[in-house]
Design goal:
Elements (H helix, E strand, L loop, with lengths): L14 E2 L3 E9 L3 E8 L5 E7 L7 H16 L8 E7 L2 E7 L3 E3 H5 L6 H20 L2 E2 L8 E5 L5 E5 L6 E2 L6 H5 L10 H4 L8 H17 L9 H10 L5 H4 L5 H10 L10 H11 L6 H5 L11 H10 L1
Antiparallel strand pairs: 1-2, 2-3, 3-4, 4-6, 5-6, 7-9, 8-11, 9-10
Length: 317
């Protein structure tokens, strides 16, 4: 979680589980607050995410909160925020997480579009994280710039971190039927099957679509799907298309425009898995990205590469 400006809070100074001292409030969301904490015995700081007081007795909120801890703890990846511990504070559950310093992608986008190298690296890292999640049967289904954190790595570099699996879908799970039946996600980044309420069709292709929308926004500084109201946005997601990318970013590589178009396509050419999207993105931005990206493995765990991935990877060599 993030280290940001200090905000006074009555929990500051409290000791959680006898070892995590709350130092300051660093964030607030719809389900709760995030605090920076110091470990009483280790010279190290962490973040604690708490459930809001008015949600402690809300069974659905509690289920989602616990699901997030369970989901993230199962995923070991350098581009996914790390869960350290699970505790309680005055009877309310807390998730102890690594403390991140930096800013959400949503804040970075307020300063305008990204250059191609920065865009390519962030896209590649988040797609790598999603590949691991999907191979574990976990669909994020709320991908958006606010849930991608650009973390400083201590050596002056940056690493993208995927956050907030609170509304994730576990593909082999038969539980959480009530929650899964609802339209969950953020309208501007929803795939058509989400926007249309077809939750039984939500899968890997849903996250791939959302990443297409994020790639469009990183390139242009504008959301791919906008409207005067939520219904207008959802209608455009289901039946429309974004403004032409080249009109927004004239220096966009042709292959990148094609990749984003396919990621946000309603037709049979829609990119339906993040591994294909990752390979195509690498090829599209190869001239703009550092060689270190291409000397690293794609690290697609236990996934059978599609014929398209194999042919594209061969063409990129």
């Amino acid at each position: 979680m993030t280290a940001r400006a200090q905000t006074k809070d009555p929990l500051v100074g409290e000791l959680v589980a006898g070892r995590y001292r709350i130092e300051r409030k660093i964030g607030q969301g719809g389900m709760g607050n995030v605090y920076e904490v110091s470990h009483a015995r280790l010279d190290r700081r962490f973040a604690i995410k708490t459930l809001a007081d008015d949600l402690v007795d809300d069974e659905e909120a509690l289920t989602r909160f616990r699901r997030e801890a369970d989901v993230i703890s199962r995923l070991k990846h350098p581009n996914i925020v790390e869960i350290v511990d699970w505790e309680e504070l005055d009877g309310s559950p807390c998730i102890v997480m690594e403390l991140l310093s930096g800013e959400p992608l949503s804040e970075r986008l307020k300063r305008g579009p990204l250059d191609w190298q920065e865009l390519g690296i962030i896209g590649d890292e988040i797609l790598s994280a999603l590949s691991v999640a999907h191979a574990s049967g976990i669909i994020h289904r709320d991908l958006k710039p606010h849930n991608i954190f650009l973390a400083e790595d201590g050596a002056g570099g940056m690493r993208a971190k995927l956050l907030d699996f609170g509304v994730s879908k576990i593909t082999d799970s038969k539980t959480f039927a009530t929650t899964d039946a609802k339209m969950l996600g953020t309208p501007a980044y929803m795939a058509p099957e989400q926007a249309d309420g077809r939750q039984d069709q939500v899968g890997a292709k849903t996250d791939a679509w959302s990443m297409g929308a994020i790639l469009y926004e990183m390139a242009t500084g504008e959301t791919a799907f906008s409207g005067a109201s939520v219904p207008a946005i959802l209608y455009r997601v289901c039946h429309g298309e974004p403004d032409p990318l080249l009109e927004q970013r004239s220096d966009a590589p042709e292959d990148f425009v094609t990749v984003v178009s396919r990621a946000l396509s309603h037709g049979s050419d829609r990119i339906t898995d993040v591994d294909t999207l990752r390979v195509l993105l690498r090829r599209a931005l190869r001239m703009h990205m550092p060689e270190s990206v291409f000397t690293s493995s794609l690290s697609i765990p236990q996934v059978q590469l599609s014929r398209e991935i194999v042919s594209v990877a061969a063409a990129a060599e």
